[in-house]
Amino acid sequence: MKTNALHGELTFRTSRSSGSGGQHVNKVATRVELLFNVPDSAVLNDADKQRILEVLANRINREGILQVAAEASRSQLQNKMLAIKKFDALISKALRPVKERPAASAYVADRNKRLRAKKRLAERKANRQKVRLDH
Fold first, then answer.
1. Which of 71, 75, 91, 134 could disulfide-link 31, Cβ–Cβ 3.0 to 4.6 Å?
2. What does the pLDDT look like over 44-57, one tens digit per residue?
3. Taking a C-beta distance cutoff of 8 angstroms, is the pair 66, 52 a contact?
4. Contact by Cβ (8 Å): 53, 41
5. What's phi and psi for 65, nearest 5 deg?
6. N-term to C-term CA, the chain
7. How far is CA 68 from the centre of its chain?
8. What percent of the residues of the chain are helix, what percent strand, and what percent coil, each to the nearest 5?
9. d(Cα 12, Cα 32) in Å, to the nearest integer?
10. Cα dist from 112 to 49, 104, 126, whole Å
11. What is the Cα–Cα distance from 25 to 34, expressed in whole angstroms?
């Protein structure tokens, strides 16, 4: 699915950025916060919405709004583009299908190797015990 279709449903909020920049930082709202309402999306189907809510749960608030912030640049426009780029990467990663892997079967040689190592360790520990002299 193209994430560009979701760009029409994005909203942005700006605020003052933290960090260095002198007086510029104190005057200009360059920090951009991208907001995307996952449950109300008209582009996503229910399965995709559920997958995004599960995978990106730590970035989504109680109302189901995905939040992505960017404040790396001193330019509001560059931060907006950076936030969109982050959003696209997050959505693409969340919607990537999980690769089905066949169950691994245990090899007889592996089991024998594990048992030999276990027996060796048991013998080593047994040798540590005090020798008893029964009179």
1. 71
2. 899 999 999 999 99
3. yes
4. no
5. -100, 120
6. 83
7. 13
8. 50, 15, 35
9. 7
10. 47, 17, 21
11. 20
Contact predicate 31/57, CB 8 Å: no
Number of H helices, E strands in the chain: 4, 3
Q: pLDDT tens digits, residue range 47-93?
A: 999 999 999 999 999 999 999 999 888 888 999 999 999 999 999 99
pLDDT band, very low/low/confident/very high, at 126 (cuts 50, 70, 90): confident
For residue 1, the model assigns a pLDDT of 55
CB-facing half-sphere around the CA of 82: CA atoms within 13 A:
15
